[in-house]
Amino acid sequence: MEDAQPSPHRLHELLAKTTRAALAASAAEGTHVFARLVGQLADILGVGATMIATQIPEHPGFMLARATWFDGRLLEPFEYDLARTPCRLVIGRQSRFAVSGVHEEFEPGSLFHAAGFDSYAACSLLDGRGRQLGLIVAMDRVPMSDAPVTEAVLQIFAVRASAELERERSEAVLRASEASYRSIFEANEDAIFIHDWATGAILDVSPKASELYGHSREALRRMRVGDISLNLPPYTEQDAVARIEEAKRRPGPVRFEWRGRHRDGRLMWHEVTLKRAEIAGEPRVLAFVRDITEQRRAEEAVRASEEQYRAIFNASADALILWDNRYRRVDVNPAYERTYGWTREEVIGCGYEHPKFSAEYARVREELVRRALAGETCHAELEAIRKDGERILTEVHAVPFLHRGEPHVLAIARDITERRRAEQALRASEEQYRSIFNASADALVLRDADFRIVDVNATYEAMSGRSRDEVLGVDRVLANPPEVGETIRGLHQQALAGEPIIFETQLVRRDGARYDLELRGVPIRHRGAPHVLYMGRDITARRRAEDQQRELQAQLRQVQKMEAIGQLTGGIAHDFNNILASIMGYVGLALERPAALADDKLADYLAQAEQGCRRARDLIQQMLAFSRGRHAERRSLPLAALIDESLRLLRATFPSSLTLEVESADETAMADVDPVQLQQVLLNLGINARDAIGSAGQIRFGVRREAVASHRCASCGQPVSGVFSRLWVADSGPGIPPQLRARIFEPFFSTKAPGRGTGMGLATVHRIVHEHGGHLLVETEGGTRFDVLLPADAAVGATVQPVASATPATRIPLARGRVLLVDDEESVLGFMRELLLSWGLEVAAVRRASAARDLLAAEGTRFDLLVTDQTMPELSGAVCRTPSRITNRFSPLPSATKPAESSTMPSR
After folding, report:
1. What's the rounded Cα separation, in Å, for the pair 192 and 288?
2. What secondary structure, in 3-state letters, does 155-199 show?
3. CA 344/CA 332 separation, integer angstroms
4. Where is the domain boundary, 415, 448, 467?
């Protein structure tokens, strides 16, 4: 793994703290040494409180805070219960470091508990024999994260504080009376050597000296100073004697460092203090020797840190410039040379005197140095000029820095030219994104990987009724039904994996209104992180249009089906009509033969055959009425009279066990109708009701004028609304099963037993009603009811013209003349020829229209009458008659007295 580049703060912390710690610890002197130590320690570590505390021998379990630095001020000494503080876990140990979590270890209501201190670091203060003297503590309200640096600084201060505590003990010994001299001498924590004033020989040593060097007191008394030194300058016996001579001359103490050797060969650093004294009336020189090996090791660590500083300084990817208080560069690193193009030799000791730099250019940068020298950490973005004249954009941090005991400023500069260009491009891209985002007609919601809303557009605010500010950061579904929340969360993970999603749900506005919503989600990267952009589109109108389209398509299919069935029915009826015409014609001719008149049995057979033909004719009439209808003769009529006329016809044919009654007969219910066709509708509905009831039941008729809304035609599916003349036929039968309702108006569809129905009754009703512009409603609850809705007519007072009753056929007298007969149907052509011959006419019969036309062109004057089929191959009947030159000598036949509906001939 590659080493991470040290941050400027790390570099500053490493150098400023360890270097300053050693210098501050060594510089602390005088009567207020502990106060200076805690103040310097708090400043170096940047913590809220530091403390040096010693044990109270006469009060076990309690500590005396000798010096306490608290939030920038020195507190008066105070005692505290060791068991109710974090210090209890340090006694008997070297140190303790807690990044956080010690707040609850303080006694509630105590100074540090009330102040909210939560991080803690401490070192034991030990004498030369490792005995506990006290503690040195650093505390803060926020976590102290750099344990190695903090502990190293504490160790440096601990060495100095321990030395001072031991020094206090030594000085107390010297201040004691001669009577207590020996006890003090024996108990002193410093190793004490008593030297002869004249020769410098060792007269006596303290027990600590024996402990320090590993020799017995007797052995030390016999030794020379050189026996326990390195015997190398400046640690030889001659140098020691010279120091003793210096102490004899100076009134004050003489201090120096000495390199000695333990009995086991270990090398030690000692701090030696020489003082003049009088013991038992004799002048002596006292040597107080303190082991400072650990202190020197700490100083060596400082030197090592300086070497590390140099390595880090040179390896930094950022340009580093060290400024002194005269605004001169003291040092620069290789990154500076790469960034600015100047070599180290060209800039060391210089400021901004070069002609390339203007006064304003220099002023801004010197102001940063000035502020940093005053203790302020500064930051600025500056346009810099390289040696080659190129201008670059730099980000500069200027921090206070202590270098070799003197205030300096460390400037950290980074070339951010490319970064700024990228940021400008990003801003342009984001501005474009924002304009597109806000201009979208769809509601847009941007969510991060944790499902939190990052952004919404104006359309979302308008559609949901929620503002952007109130939804940002929300990690749940807001504008959709709660039950789809987990589904959308699952789709969110699917989209984060790179798969676009589409989901149809509902949009729930703040006011509770709901809309159909199409929700799409696409994965995107926003500011370097995976997000999902959701696009919501209101599809309520589209859904409504699709529903309407489905309804229209169903209606169209129904119309097309009925149209196709009608065309098929018309074609079948036409062909059947041609066949039936010849059958009925020949039966009619047979009935007129003498043999039929003489043979009653034969006449009865022919009459039965004729009756069957009439039934077939009636079926054809209904089929033709369904397929194309007859020419309606409409007039404005009151519908109540038609119901009365229809009931008279039905009562004559229905069994007496069926009750026929009129529920309503509104005389104002008028409609523009063909009375014959409308009566056929009533008769078909009545017969249909009779067959549904069976042998006993009730059939109700009614009519009234009323407004109709929110209905749909049962046969064509069209919506129905408006003012209608409503005519109905209801029965007390079992009703129509739901699975059959959609087919009841189809031709030839019937649920009746074979031979009991043709399946054309309701199909004929459908055709007649819709030809009159009306609609049909069907209800099947508690029986069946058919409602015929006809456009209402405002006229009132017209009378119903009853349908003419059939009258007996009048025998046609024999006639004279020549007839040209044309029909492409052979059976019809044969019957018509026989019929005309039976009337006494001469007949020329041809099947092809072109042959008839040629015959007319050649012999037209020979024919008195031309009879043609209306529709034929090659030529129609009308075209065939065009060139005729028939004379007007033929006596016209008497007109028929029967209407077409009751004629023995089928309609062609």
Report:
1. 5
2. HHHHHHHHHHHHHHHHHHHHHCCHHHHHHHHHHCCCEEEEEECCC
3. 6
4. 415
Any long-range contacts for 590-596 (C-beta under 8 Å, 24+ apart)? Answer: 592/811, 592/838
The model's pLDDT over 423-482, given as tens digits with 9 standing for 90+, comes to: 787 777 777 777 777 778 888 999 999 999 989 988 888 888 999 899 899 898 888 888
The domain total for the chain is 6
Non-local CB neighbours of 55 within 8 Å, separated by 6+ positions = 63, 64, 132, 133, 134
Do 322 and 375 lie in a common domain? yes
Cβ-proximal residues to 615 (8 Å cutoff; 6+ apart), any chain: none
Number of neighbouring beta carbons within 10 Å of residue 496 = 17
**Among candidates 587, 617, 618, which has minimal Cα distance to 605?**
587
Report the mean per-residue pLDDT for the chain.
81
The verdict on 117 and 244 lying in the same domain is: no
**Structural tokens at position 522:** 């696409």
Q: Is residue 369 located within the same domain as residue 404?
A: yes
Tens digit of each residue's pLDDT (9 = 90 or more) over 829-871 = 887 888 888 788 888 888 888 888 888 888 877 888 888 877 7
Beta pairing partners, 277: 284
CA 14 to chain centre: 47
CATH of residue 852's domain is 3.40.50.2300
Contact between 400 and 409 under an 8 Å Cβ cutoff? The reply is yes
Residues 6+ apart with CB under 8 A from 116: 103, 141
> What is the number of alpha carbons within 13 Å of residue 440 lying toward its C-beta?
23
Same domain membership, residue 708 and residue 625: yes
Q: Does 751 fall in a domain?
A: yes
Q: Assess whether pLDDT exceeds 80 at residue 56.
A: yes
SS3 of residue 801 by DSSP: coil
- Per the structure, the complete domain to which residue 381 belongs is given by 316-415
Q: What is the pLDDT of residue 810?
A: 45
Centre a 10 Å sphere on the Cβ of residue 139 and count the other Cβ atoms it contains: 25
Amino acid at 105: E
Boundary of a domain, candidates 495, 520, 538 = 538
Determine, yes or no, domain membership for 529. Answer: yes
Token digits of residue 338? 């790469």
Q: 632 falls in which pLDDT band (50, 70, 90)?
A: low
Structural domain includes residue 852: yes
The letter for the amino acid at 553 is: Q
Count how many Cα atoms sit within 13 Å of the Cα of residue 555 in the half-sphere of its side chain. Answer: 13
For 93-102, 299-308, 507-516, 642-651, which range has the lowest pLDDT when averaged over its residues?
299-308
pLDDT in tens, 588-615: 778 777 777 778 778 877 888 877 787 6
Q: Alpha-carbon distance 896 to 184, whole Å?
A: 165
Q: Mark whether 360 and 457 lie in a shared domain.
A: no
Taking the C-alpha atoms of residue 482 and residue 488, their distance in angstroms, rounded to an integer, is: 10
Cβ 554 vs Cβ 565: under 8 Å: no
Residue 71 backbone class (left: φ over 0; alpha: ψ -120 to 50; beta: rest): left
What is the mean predicted confidence (pLDDT) over 193-216? 89
- Using DSSP bridges, classify how beta strands 818-822 and 842-846 pair: parallel, antiparallel or unpaired: parallel
Return the residue matching tokens 């402990």. Answer: 211
Q: Note whether 715 and 758 are same-domain residues.
A: yes
pLDDT of residue 566: 64
- Is residue 206 within 8 A of residue 188, CB to CB? The reply is yes
Q: Which amino acid is at 453?
A: I
* For helices 761-771 and 600-627, angle between their N-to-C axes, nearest 10 degrees: 50
Contact status, residue 475 vs residue 488, Cβ threshold 8 Å = no
> DSSP state, 257?
E
Q: Any alpha helices (H) in 193-322, and if so which ranges?
A: 207-213, 217-222, 237-249, 293-315
CA distances from 57 to 134, 197, 569, 711 (A): 11, 37, 126, 106
CB 62 within 8 A of CB 56: yes
CATH classification of the domain holding 477: 3.30.450.20
User: What Rg do the C-alpha atoms of the chain give, in angstroms?
Assistant: 62
Identify whether 543 is part of a domain.
no
